[in-house]
Amino acid sequence: MDNMDAHFPPLSRRRLAAGAILLAVVLVLALRHHAAGGAAASPSVTPVAPVRPVRAAAPKLLVVDVAGAVRRPGLYRLRSGARIDDAIAAAGGATAKAQLDAVNLAAPVADGEQVLVPGSGVAAAAASAAGAGSSPSAPLDLNTATAEQLDALPGIGPITAQKIIDYRTAHGPFHAVDELQGVPGIGPAKMAQLKGLVIP
Fold first, then answer.
1. pTM: predicted TM-score of the whole model, two decimal places
2. How many CB atoms lie under 10 A from the CB of residue 166?
3. Three-state secondary structure call for residue 130
4. What span, in angstroms and rounded, lies between the C-alpha atoms of 149 and 119?
5. Averaged in consecutive runs of 10 residues, what is the pLDDT profile of the chain (200 residues)?
6. Are 164 and 155 in contact (CB under 8 A)?
7. In a 10 Å sphere around its CB, with 0-12 CB exposed, 13-18 middle and 19+ buried, how is residue 89 labelled?
Protein backbone atom coordinates (compact mmCIF):
# COMPACT_ATOMS: atom_id res chain seq x y z
CA MET A 1 0.00 0.00 0.00
CA ASP A 2 2.93 2.30 0.60
CA ASN A 3 3.88 1.93 -3.03
CA MET A 4 0.37 2.86 -4.29
CA ASP A 5 0.58 5.58 -6.92
CA ALA A 6 -1.24 8.67 -5.57
CA HIS A 7 -1.38 10.35 -8.99
CA PHE A 8 -4.65 10.35 -10.87
CA PRO A 9 -4.69 8.73 -14.22
CA PRO A 10 -4.51 11.15 -17.13
CA LEU A 11 -8.11 10.53 -18.06
CA SER A 12 -9.30 11.45 -14.58
CA ARG A 13 -7.41 14.73 -14.66
CA ARG A 14 -9.07 15.70 -17.91
CA ARG A 15 -12.47 14.93 -16.49
CA LEU A 16 -11.69 16.98 -13.42
CA ALA A 17 -10.61 19.96 -15.52
CA ALA A 18 -13.70 19.71 -17.67
CA GLY A 19 -15.90 19.56 -14.58
CA ALA A 20 -14.19 22.64 -13.13
CA ILE A 21 -14.77 24.56 -16.36
CA LEU A 22 -18.40 23.46 -16.46
CA LEU A 23 -18.86 24.52 -12.84
CA ALA A 24 -17.36 27.94 -13.58
CA VAL A 25 -19.71 28.42 -16.54
CA VAL A 26 -22.71 27.44 -14.40
CA LEU A 27 -21.66 29.91 -11.69
CA VAL A 28 -21.27 32.73 -14.23
CA LEU A 29 -24.69 32.01 -15.70
CA ALA A 30 -26.24 31.83 -12.25
CA LEU A 31 -24.76 35.20 -11.27
CA ARG A 32 -26.02 36.81 -14.46
CA HIS A 33 -29.48 35.37 -13.97
CA HIS A 34 -29.55 36.58 -10.38
CA ALA A 35 -28.47 40.07 -11.44
CA ALA A 36 -31.16 40.18 -14.14
CA GLY A 37 -33.80 38.99 -11.67
CA GLY A 38 -32.84 41.68 -9.19
CA ALA A 39 -33.14 44.34 -11.84
CA ALA A 40 -36.55 43.03 -12.84
CA ALA A 41 -37.66 42.99 -9.23
CA SER A 42 -36.75 46.63 -8.71
CA PRO A 43 -39.89 48.75 -8.49
CA SER A 44 -40.82 50.49 -11.70
CA VAL A 45 -41.76 54.16 -11.67
CA THR A 46 -45.35 54.76 -12.86
CA PRO A 47 -45.93 58.20 -14.35
CA VAL A 48 -48.64 60.15 -12.55
CA ALA A 49 -51.36 61.59 -14.75
CA PRO A 50 -51.48 65.39 -14.55
CA VAL A 51 -54.25 66.73 -12.33
CA ARG A 52 -56.78 68.71 -14.32
CA PRO A 53 -57.80 71.98 -12.71
CA VAL A 54 -61.35 71.94 -11.40
CA ARG A 55 -63.49 74.46 -13.18
CA ALA A 56 -65.17 76.91 -10.88
CA ALA A 57 -68.93 76.54 -10.78
CA ALA A 58 -70.88 79.23 -12.58
CA PRO A 59 -72.02 81.91 -10.16
CA LYS A 60 -75.61 81.55 -9.02
CA LEU A 61 -77.98 84.12 -10.48
CA LEU A 62 -80.74 85.75 -8.45
CA VAL A 63 -84.01 86.87 -10.03
CA VAL A 64 -85.45 90.05 -8.55
CA ASP A 65 -88.44 92.24 -9.40
CA VAL A 66 -87.47 95.90 -9.46
CA ALA A 67 -90.50 98.21 -9.26
CA GLY A 68 -91.46 101.71 -8.26
CA ALA A 69 -89.55 104.87 -9.15
CA VAL A 70 -86.97 103.32 -11.51
CA ARG A 71 -86.45 103.92 -15.22
CA ARG A 72 -87.01 100.35 -16.43
CA PRO A 73 -89.09 98.31 -13.96
CA GLY A 74 -89.12 94.57 -14.46
CA LEU A 75 -87.37 91.29 -13.69
CA TYR A 76 -83.58 91.25 -13.55
CA ARG A 77 -80.94 88.56 -13.00
CA LEU A 78 -78.15 89.54 -10.63
CA ARG A 79 -75.11 87.71 -9.33
CA SER A 80 -75.25 86.16 -5.89
CA GLY A 81 -74.16 88.74 -3.31
CA ALA A 82 -75.68 91.69 -5.22
CA ARG A 83 -77.05 94.64 -3.26
CA ILE A 84 -80.22 96.73 -3.60
CA ASP A 85 -78.09 99.41 -5.28
CA ASP A 86 -77.08 96.87 -7.96
CA ALA A 87 -80.73 95.99 -8.61
CA ILE A 88 -81.69 99.65 -9.04
CA ALA A 89 -78.72 100.20 -11.37
CA ALA A 90 -79.80 97.17 -13.46
CA ALA A 91 -83.24 98.78 -13.85
CA GLY A 92 -81.68 101.90 -15.35
CA GLY A 93 -81.33 103.80 -12.10
CA ALA A 94 -83.81 105.74 -10.02
CA THR A 95 -86.12 108.41 -11.44
CA ALA A 96 -86.17 112.02 -10.32
CA LYS A 97 -89.12 111.25 -8.03
CA ALA A 98 -87.38 108.35 -6.27
CA GLN A 99 -86.96 108.57 -2.51
CA LEU A 100 -83.70 106.67 -2.16
CA ASP A 101 -83.32 107.73 1.46
CA ALA A 102 -86.22 105.38 2.24
CA VAL A 103 -84.34 102.41 0.74
CA ASN A 104 -81.38 100.57 2.27
CA LEU A 105 -79.12 100.51 -0.79
CA ALA A 106 -76.54 98.33 0.97
CA ALA A 107 -78.98 95.51 1.82
CA PRO A 108 -78.26 92.18 0.05
CA VAL A 109 -80.73 91.00 -2.56
CA ALA A 110 -82.53 87.69 -2.07
CA ASP A 111 -83.76 85.44 -4.88
CA GLY A 112 -87.40 86.19 -5.71
CA GLU A 113 -87.39 89.49 -3.82
CA GLN A 114 -89.19 92.61 -4.98
CA VAL A 115 -87.15 95.80 -4.76
CA LEU A 116 -89.65 98.64 -4.47
CA VAL A 117 -88.35 102.20 -4.81
CA PRO A 118 -90.93 104.69 -3.49
CA GLY A 119 -91.47 107.96 -5.32
CA SER A 120 -91.85 111.44 -3.88
CA GLY A 121 -95.42 112.37 -2.99
CA VAL A 122 -96.54 108.81 -2.35
CA ALA A 123 -96.18 109.29 1.39
CA ALA A 124 -98.20 112.51 1.21
CA ALA A 125 -100.90 110.75 -0.78
CA ALA A 126 -101.00 107.97 1.77
CA ALA A 127 -101.22 110.54 4.56
CA SER A 128 -104.22 112.15 2.85
CA ALA A 129 -105.89 108.78 2.64
CA ALA A 130 -105.13 108.33 6.33
CA GLY A 131 -107.22 111.43 7.03
CA ALA A 132 -110.17 109.54 5.61
CA GLY A 133 -109.65 106.72 8.10
CA SER A 134 -106.90 104.70 6.38
CA SER A 135 -103.58 103.67 7.83
CA PRO A 136 -100.73 106.18 7.24
CA SER A 137 -98.83 103.49 5.35
CA ALA A 138 -101.81 102.38 3.27
CA PRO A 139 -101.54 102.53 -0.54
CA LEU A 140 -103.49 105.15 -2.47
CA ASP A 141 -107.16 104.37 -3.18
CA LEU A 142 -107.79 104.77 -6.91
CA ASN A 143 -111.48 105.51 -6.33
CA THR A 144 -110.95 108.43 -3.94
CA ALA A 145 -107.56 109.84 -5.01
CA THR A 146 -107.37 113.37 -6.36
CA ALA A 147 -105.46 114.36 -9.50
CA GLU A 148 -102.67 115.79 -7.30
CA GLN A 149 -102.35 112.54 -5.36
CA LEU A 150 -102.27 110.46 -8.57
CA ASP A 151 -99.70 112.82 -10.08
CA ALA A 152 -97.38 112.06 -7.15
CA LEU A 153 -97.25 108.34 -8.05
CA PRO A 154 -94.16 107.06 -9.94
CA GLY A 155 -94.67 107.08 -13.70
CA ILE A 156 -97.86 109.15 -13.46
CA GLY A 157 -97.84 112.77 -14.56
CA PRO A 158 -100.62 115.36 -14.47
CA ILE A 159 -102.00 114.28 -17.85
CA THR A 160 -102.18 110.57 -16.95
CA ALA A 161 -103.63 111.46 -13.53
CA GLN A 162 -106.47 113.32 -15.24
CA LYS A 163 -107.02 110.37 -17.59
CA ILE A 164 -107.41 108.07 -14.57
CA ILE A 165 -110.05 110.37 -13.11
CA ASP A 166 -111.83 110.63 -16.48
CA TYR A 167 -111.78 106.83 -16.82
CA ARG A 168 -113.17 106.46 -13.29
CA THR A 169 -115.94 108.96 -14.09
CA ALA A 170 -116.86 107.22 -17.34
CA HIS A 171 -116.66 103.58 -16.18
CA GLY A 172 -117.41 103.78 -12.48
CA PRO A 173 -115.15 102.80 -9.56
CA PHE A 174 -112.15 100.53 -10.03
CA HIS A 175 -112.65 96.95 -8.86
CA ALA A 176 -109.05 95.80 -9.53
CA VAL A 177 -105.72 97.52 -10.03
CA ASP A 178 -105.35 95.76 -13.40
CA GLU A 179 -108.24 97.91 -14.72
CA LEU A 180 -105.74 100.77 -14.89
CA GLN A 181 -104.47 99.21 -18.12
CA GLY A 182 -107.68 100.44 -19.73
CA VAL A 183 -106.51 104.02 -19.15
CA PRO A 184 -104.70 105.40 -22.23
CA GLY A 185 -100.97 105.72 -21.58
CA ILE A 186 -100.75 103.05 -18.84
CA GLY A 187 -98.98 99.89 -19.95
CA PRO A 188 -97.15 97.00 -18.25
CA ALA A 189 -94.15 99.19 -17.33
CA LYS A 190 -96.25 101.73 -15.44
CA MET A 191 -98.31 98.96 -13.89
CA ALA A 192 -95.08 97.51 -12.49
CA GLN A 193 -94.19 100.91 -11.02
CA LEU A 194 -97.60 101.18 -9.33
CA LYS A 195 -97.51 97.66 -7.91
CA GLY A 196 -98.16 97.83 -4.17
CA LEU A 197 -98.73 101.61 -4.21
CA VAL A 198 -102.40 101.70 -5.22
CA ILE A 199 -105.55 99.73 -4.43
CA PRO A 200 -109.02 99.68 -6.09
1. 0.38
2. 12
3. helix
4. 12
5. 50 70 78 61 61 69 88 90 92 89 86 84 46 49 86 84 89 86 85 82
6. no
7. middle
